[in-house]
User: Fold these one by one.
Assistant:
Number 1:
Amino acid sequence: MTEEHAEHILSYGKLTTVWVALLVLTAATIMVTRVELGVWKVWAALAIASVKSGLVIAFFMHMKYEPRLFRIILFVALFTLAGFIGGTFFDVLYR
Amino acid sequence: MSHETAMAEGGFWRDTGRTGIGAWIFSTDHKRIGLMYLYCVSGFFLVGAFLGLLIRLELMAPGPTIMTAQTYNAVFTVHGVVMIFLFIIPGIPASFGNLVLPIQLGARDVAFPRVNLFSWWLYAIGAVIVLTSLFTGGGAPDTGWTFYVPFSARTTTNVSLAVFGVFVLGFSSILTGINFITTIHRMRAPGMTWTRIPLFTWSLYATAWVQVLATPIIAITLLLVVTERILGLGLFDPTRGGDPVMFQHMFWIYSHPAVYIMILPGMGVISDIIPVFSRKPIFGYKMIAFSSLAIAAAGSAVWGHHMYTSGMSDMGVLIFSFLTFIVAIPSAIKVFNWVSTMYKGSISLEAPMLFALSFILLFSIGGLSGLILGAAATDIHVHDTHFVVGHFHYVMFGGTGFAFFAAAHYWLPKYFGRRYREKPAIVGWVLMFIGFNILYFTMQVLGMEGMPRRYYDYLPEFARLNFVATVGSWIMLAGVAIVVWNLWRGLLKGEPFTGNPWGGASLEWSIATPPPTENFEEDPVVTHGPYDFKGAGVP
């Protein structure tokens, strides 16, 4: 409960690598819009966005190095948000 | 653990570097912040109750009685806004939560004392903004406390400022929630395992999660209403591609879980009071603790039951109606466990226990009438009638309101070092209980007969019961006046209150009265559960 964990400081190299990965994924988002994917276009954009936010959460927000409790708390928040958004689809999809 | 019960030299009341009002509004002591919240929410409760009295006076007879229709619209809106956002949401968690939670955990303060003070300041600023909105611009909002579009986007009354005030109040609520979650995880005394946390604090834990996760959604929704009014974006306007039902989704995604922010701490109060006044350990400790989390989780998935007649899809109605019934399970777990705790107990009917007992009855009536509203088929008939108003007041006032008074009678003598007189407390409680049922049960009957809510005028056949309900409001408010006067007088001038006269086994009863500034003279080591009266050495 009260255990302390050491400060984890990320190297500039690692931060830069993540940043470059985010730029590449941003470029990928733009390129995907030019490919004819039909209804999958939205899913492709959402998938890339999920990977990007995963990278930000893991490295820029340090979640990869935090205790499990914090990861659970983050998951609860994301799950709740997904539930809130998902719940409205019981209405909008079937109107 | 220490069993120090000697009267401290004024405790936290005297032990401060500052003097005057600065010793309060700049204090980071959780007890002072809790009392500041208590004074504010109690003041707003009285304002809200007065407005409620005006509503009942207007409805006492058909046609215009004491005010115009526009004033009536403003009065019921402001009654709702003040009672919901300024009294009942911060009511128990911010006031009694701040007073009691750190001590129940064996901590010297909350995890972030300055954030705690900032949270109070946000509450005070939000309250001032809301009150300012009543007297400036186009006058007091007339939308009802739900601020439904499209009306709230078009009305010329001062909706923008009022919802901005509520937006600020939301941040106060979020910060209190974060503070409590962190305090419960990080600040527990040695030996205070998760299954030794008192159930009041458990309920605040579940509440805090709802505060943190749901409140941002109302903040965004209300900002969207402001942008709609100022910029005319058309987000909720169907003629411009918007969706008014989406507002209702977003509003209730917060506001339904918010009713659990309101009721869960009340349930926690009852879970702490019943075993003490039954002289028996709580029945089903783990299930009560778990059911608080279950209510918080399930309660976050049922918002659509406010929208059965709004034009939501039939699939949505079906799913939300089904999910709503799930909430009844953990609620019933609590009620059965409270009753089982009392079974064969040595029950002592003092003021806190009387309020707690009436909570169980009134909450059960409110909860059961909630099933009628949760089932889509029956809800269609009583939607937007006085049945809903009656149901809501049974759970919110009969539930949280009575729990608030139970908590006040149970804990405040500990903090003031003085006690109220028992007889007026009981007389007040009797009047409140009788007046309450005359007022709100009559409303439920009126609703069944088809009387709509929020209407200024009504058909002659509703006149008799409306008159009865108004008389009920007088009886109830007479009771409230006696209870408040008795508490006020007793806590300031009453007999000294020392030691542990109720015989509680949780940590707050093991320290001096009033509590010292840092609560514990030496860090406590917890060796028994919160309802282990033998372990605590309570006779």
Note: The CA atoms of residues 29 and 93 of chain A lie 26 Å apart.
Number 2:
Amino acid sequence: MKRGLDGPAPEERPTPQGRRNKQGIRIDPEVEATHEPRRTVISALVEHEPGVLSDVSGLFSRRQFNIESLTVGPTNDDDRARITVVVEEPDPGIDQIKKQLRKLVPVISVRELEPDAMRRELALVKVEAERPDQVAAVAEMYDGNTVDSCPETATIEVTGARQKIEAAIETFSQFGIREISRTGTTALARGTDETAASHSVGSPAAAEEPPADTANHQQTYTHSTDDD
Amino acid sequence: MSERAAKVTPAESDEQDDDQIADSAVPDAATEAETDADTTAEPTPEPVTNGAEAVVRALENAGVEYAFGVQGGAIMPVYDALYDSDIYHVTMAHEQGAAHAADAYGIVSGEPGICLATSGPGATNLVTGIADADMDSDPLVALTGQVPTEFVGNDAFQETDTTGVTTPVTKDNTFSSDPDRVGSDVSEAFALAREGRPGPTLVDLPKDITKSETDREPDEPNVPDTYTVQERADPAIVDAAAERIENADRPVMLLGGGVIKGEASEACREFAIEHEIPVVTTMPGIGSFPENHELSMEMAGMHGTGYANMAITHCDTMLAIGTRFDDRLTGGIETFAPDAEVIHVDIDPAEISKNIHADYPLVGDAETVVEQLREAVDASPEAKKWRAQCQQWKSDYSMAYDAPEDEPVQPEFVVEALDEATADDTIVTTGVGQHQMWACQYWTYTEPRTWVSSHGLGTMGYGLPAAIGARLAADDDQDVVCIDGDGSFLMTLQGLSVAVRENLDITVAVLNNEYIGMVRQWQDAFFEGRHSASNYNWMPEFDKLAEAFGARGFRIDGYDEVADTIEDAIAYDGPSVIDVHIDPEANVYPMVPSGGDNGQFALAEDQL
């Protein structure tokens, strides 16, 4: 018997003119519009309770968000901790990260920091101490402190923005690096600007930067569900 | 109930926000409660004495009537407390069935279904059902026993890191570590499962915590402060979307499962009819719009109707409500509704522009936002030509099938016969595979909460336990039919023992082709017909198996038996199983291959 259904075959059907890109955005068929990944810092204020860190890190791994570093630590409020994540994603991905983080129940508020936010990381660099004077000179050049030394090794603590740490490490490499430990980036917004507000509840969406939606008509929408 | 003396009411102590005040205020509360008890007919429950009683009290306060579960060591204290409760516990044959039954209960009733299991294997057996609920945003509360806290982390007998295992598949979960909080943890889990976008929650209950003494009544079922839901969409975007609808040439409404969960079916129906907009549904959206209505284009997607797929492919304006644009719906993103400006209504901001960019993002409750749109839309779109085109597609791509009488029974015929033999409000549950698609395509759904299936996770074996849960949530005069496949049925048919014991009036129709049929169909289309591990070669006789369980068994081999056998099975007041031997080579069409263009659906294998 015949298998299947009757009707015009695929090649006999009309086809629409338009197309979407992989991010589901309608595009001009002639112009391939893609978003390039960019690096940014997302700060989340969370309930200081067991399991939050694994909730957050699990979210990043299972949704395949690209993260460069993730740090967590207590805040001035004993019940709250701050998680700082450096991510590298195209705009729609960064938008998804913020929204998915906000959905986690122990997450109080989430914000993407401005490019001028204060960002610091710390590195401990253990180098061969054959040339102690030169090691000390390089440490001084990067405002580093020598936190441990013995006849064989010296360990220098360097803090600063990522680029400075990388430059310091490159310079220290001339002495022979034995081990490195780095913390990942922690960050705060500048001045009176709040990094992530401590109350989540209800205030109709205020001042957060608009989500990085792009294209077409309505580019932005507001949450009342979050932070701002 | 009469043996429950009035000593203290939960409400009384709940009014005290501060823990210490609440504790010290117990004597006062007790006196007030006694005076209250004189004036109210409701018997006041006894105060809780331990963590397990607080857990059960939290469920009672939330109005829970049924729970589905399996006993075991670490959950015993909770079961002991259930012994005195009015909550009716259905002992299931397997924890997976408990989760599916509770999930289906939630779909049909709209209130979270409750499932219980012990630690270790009990909890891990629940996981499939919890993941299923998570993918379909079904309200579900899972309560799992756990080894005593002093053993946690020591690889104790039947220990599993249950919150760790279930984090990716729950909306939220909690390891309960305080007897004074354990009842409130359950209350909160119940509230979270229901509020906003529904989903499964889990509370892990260490045995020492449920056994510990406490007199703390659970808090009211409220969500935590950190959880907020936006009900109304931004009016400016509503206005812009309304203007777009007014000016649409080729409008389509795409209704997803969120329409049913958000109780927006009626509002959507009225909106569509008022503005004469053709309606397409997703699979979970089945039932949100009556499929016998002229405007209904039925289900779109991989095995959606040709006309639904033509409509979404060619529309210029898509009003999508309560859908997450799953890949089985969209096919390839590049070719999904490529000319359409998308108005996306969803209660979960994270769904907006996740898969398909929303030109008009409307975050809010489905019913509320549709009402906002109704107020904002002043004129219907001028789309007469488009509607005529849609009707033309309905006839061009008719779902009519061949059923020669001298050939094996075609599955479509069986689904239609079941539909004809039952009332419009009949609830259909299914497993996953070909039979599920035929049940979508050839049953005419007209009411919300009558289609109960595993959509996102695609869990074979869902149908029978779901029928058990649906039966208990349904009205007494509603029929419940499980359309199953032989492979799906074989995975969870131990649930028949439950259906027989509880004398549940359900009819299971097994569309038996002795294949994992959908896999066999794909092997024929994409793997050169190499039937690796898809041919069962031998299946038990399901009618006899049913009789062995104590259910009624029926068998259909030819067309002449279909109508009478179905009538007998439906009429039987208890569980019945019809083993329907269908054409083993029957395939599901139309079909859009994975990642394909919806408009290029195949009507037969040679078009794939």
Note: Chain B touches chain A through 69 residues (CB under 8 Å).
